[in-house]
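#onboarding

Welcome to the new folks! Below is a worked example of what a typical request in this channel looks like: someone posts a single protein sequence, and someone else replies with the predicted structure as tokens. Don't worry about understanding the tokens yet, we'll cover that in week two.

Example request:
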Amino acid sequence: MPPTPHPQDPAGTAGAPWLSGPGIPLTILASAALVFMCHWGSDVLIPIALAIFISYVLSPPVGWLKRRLRIPLALGATLVMLLVLGTLGAGIVALQPQAGKLLDTIPEAARKLDRQLRRNALDKESAVARMKEAAAELERAASSATNSDPRPAKPKAAAPQPESRVERLLAIGTARVIIAGVNAVVVISLVFLLLVTGDTFKRKLVRASGETLRQRKITVEILQEIEQQVSRYLFAHVATSALLGVLSWIVFAWMGLENAVFWGVAAGVLHLVPYLGPALTMGLTGLVAYLQFDQTEQVALVMGSQLVLASVIGMIVMPWITGRMTSINVVAIFVSLLFWGWLWGAWGLLLGVPIMMTVKAICERTDGLQAIAELLGREPPPREKAPPPAPEESAAAPT
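Example response:
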């Protein structure tokens, strides 16, 4: 039974021992330990969380194949995974020629950028030339102050030859590609196993949650709400990202930007990472527009179109859909993106909202944690007051 708040404690903190005086230090220590564990174990926790949330999206079609077509879970999961991976592979193969053309333009783009920088350096009135002149003046002032010291300068030891920057970048890139490949295999394997097991793991979790019927019922409600909320949010997120990609492709093609299809797909995929993805799309398309058109107005038009599309879809359409499909408020979504983005980087921006939905579903049905669910939850719409009953007419008319 949920705790009854004290008459002078409207927030219900009397029933939450973690908000009382002795419980505050323990709560702070437990929270700090949890944050440290999430940061320290990010290499393991991120693939697990990503696989669980992907399985929530793919489990409805697998269940439909089992119920309607009598296909076993293993075969249904295999068909769904092959369909998803085949679609991704076909998209990559279809975009490969445009990506190759884009890579072929990189040397020419680097030479053009180098010529522009040299032209700016020769211009005495440019900002680059002024910065170089200011740096030279500061260096001369520092050297004159150093030469005023009568003590002879000690001979400098020969510095070791630094490693080539290209070799270092190549080594880092190769290591990251290998790590990304291993994580992709881990995520795909875990998603497949979760789909094959179906509700087996959920039933085990329900049995382990407690002996009483009430405890098991609460666990079932938590699991159902998590699956429902996360599935709705991810579906809305993918749908709005696809919409942004199509609109970006149309706008880029209308402006005459080369590889418009590739950049439209890139805009839709990068939009899956909130805030960081659209900013990266704006920067890349702006750079490509500058190298192609060499006009500031055209660059501003390309970047401005992405800013408008990302703002309308990310700030208006997505919050409206999220507010209707989920029970978490917009402020909590923004704060969770800041926190998980700081903790896990781009993966935190992608997984932050589903994680907070999971936290809210758990806190909402756990004694002493309802205050957290209240902070994360969305304000219910105001109920219309019923009109007052009409006054009863007099039984007899006055004579």
